[in-house]
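Quick one - inputs below.
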Amino acid sequence: MNLITIEDVHAAAERIRGAAVRTPLLPCDWADVDRPLWLKPENLQPVGAFKIRGAANAMARIPASARANGVVAYSSGNHAQAVAYMAKRLGLPAVIVVPENTPATKIEASRRHGAEVVVVPITDRELVAARLVAERGATLVPPFDHADVIAGQGTIGLEIAADLPEVEVVLVPVSGGGLAAGVATAIRACCPAAVVIGVEPELAGDVAASFAAGHRVLWSAQDRARTIADGLRATPSELTFAHLTQRVDAMVTVSEDEIRAAVATLATCANLVAEPSGAVTTAAYLHRAADLPTGRTVAVVSGGNVDRWLLAELLG
Amino acid sequence: MNLITIEDVHAAAERIRGAAVRTPLLPCDWADVDRPLWLKPENLQPVGAFKIRGAANAMARIPASARANGVVAYSSGNHAQAVAYMAKRLGLPAVIVVPENTPATKIEASRRHGAEVVVVPITDRELVAARLVAERGATLVPPFDHADVIAGQGTIGLEIAADLPEVEVVLVPVSGGGLAAGVATAIRACCPAAVVIGVEPELAGDVAASFAAGHRVLWSAQDRARTIADGLRATPSELTFAHLTQRVDAMVTVSEDEIRAAVATLATCANLVAEPSGAVTTAAYLHRAADLPTGRTVAVVSGGNVDRWLLAELLG
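Output:
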């Protein structure tokens, strides 16, 4: 299987310039002395998540002849918003296929960006998306199972390497694996002495279980859906899993309580609103010190789209 | 009276590099079409506020012969944390003089940075600080009434000009006036077509009242203390007021309810935790459109040190 290269990530960085925010590294004065911590706040991106990077890279590569036919995404989460946002920015039509249990606020968010939203039974999502692609000549922008999407997410690793070349530990959330695959590709190439550690919720710890078993372990969607971290309920594709096994050094998992507490810590100590999925790396830093190497650490805060009532509850 | 120059701000930018975070401009996809909005998130600085910039610049200029005698600051708020943080970073002793009504958490924050904290009756603050300066040969770092502090805060304006040269409106909070004085100096020099608008709470609107009257109007500390925006209860010095009258184009005020709502908007729409003082510019953008020019707008989010219970209340 062909993995993406560091050149793919560099090319993505050129393509997404201006669409994605060049996020800074934020030093944390509350970190342990032997493990100084910086946060990479991808929750500050347009649409509130790193997903803008992969979507922008993949959509920049659509041939001129196919652009007018638009794009299709099936997702109810941050990826859908990223595709809708980028389509508006690029002047392309977009269709977002969402399952019928999607909260109205999320549908509204996609519509606000001008996207057409098609609501279908959850089991029909990929089928309907494929039909739209076939009927309209549109381009599918998958959430993670695509080399261009992985390369786009990898630009986060390039920026970490540029801002903190002496980084020693990079903590990155793992769900479908596109983010971790891309970041690990960039860090391996630019900071070969650093280790990249993937973080999952215990309740959606299929990749950690796979690493522990030494072979791919599959968990049901129902099992993975138990975590509060709703952005981390996916499972890698063959493509992203191959990147993870070859380029991510280790996996750790965190509990639901630790994730909840980390959301509050990020709000109170770093002035960042993180969604539970975006807080798992901070949870690992705070509660899995024994499983992590010491040294200069970067935690990727992947997104911030948390319901305001939940945020208030976690703070109260 | 000598005002600072753009050269002072450029020199400050060199001095504070590495101490202050180079914050990005964050585009807001929820902004009005004719008034695109970017946030300048100074709440992401170490110590959670822009104050690090002025403190870093002023402290970098302390002569080698005086460094071992340390620094003194009288403040219970973000400026004290900034001085304590920078002193630790530079290896200087620091004394923070705080009034006896200061919350224990704020005293603890200064001590965590290694500062000595002296608790005094509120009316004795400046006297005790002056005595410490005289006795120890220490250097006083004032919160705003100092050219180096103003120049340090002005680096925010330089960064706005670099990232968005075509900016048309800059919204900046006004309290003691150091931030607005510095930002206005930089914007006037780098983006002469842009207007700089100061924002105050109505309940601490002494500078707005002064602008309206055409001469300096003084409000009592008791009056100014009514606002929830506890970082905006100070009043300009002669030095900062001279900068404001000559370089800030207009003042607007916002209500307490508007400030509270803006804290929630920044958390839910921009994933930023802002303190009430840091949210006044967003409040002005949202609720004072009639008083503001249209065009590309930047709102400075000056700080994020809000009590977690208050934040939870404003979100709930």
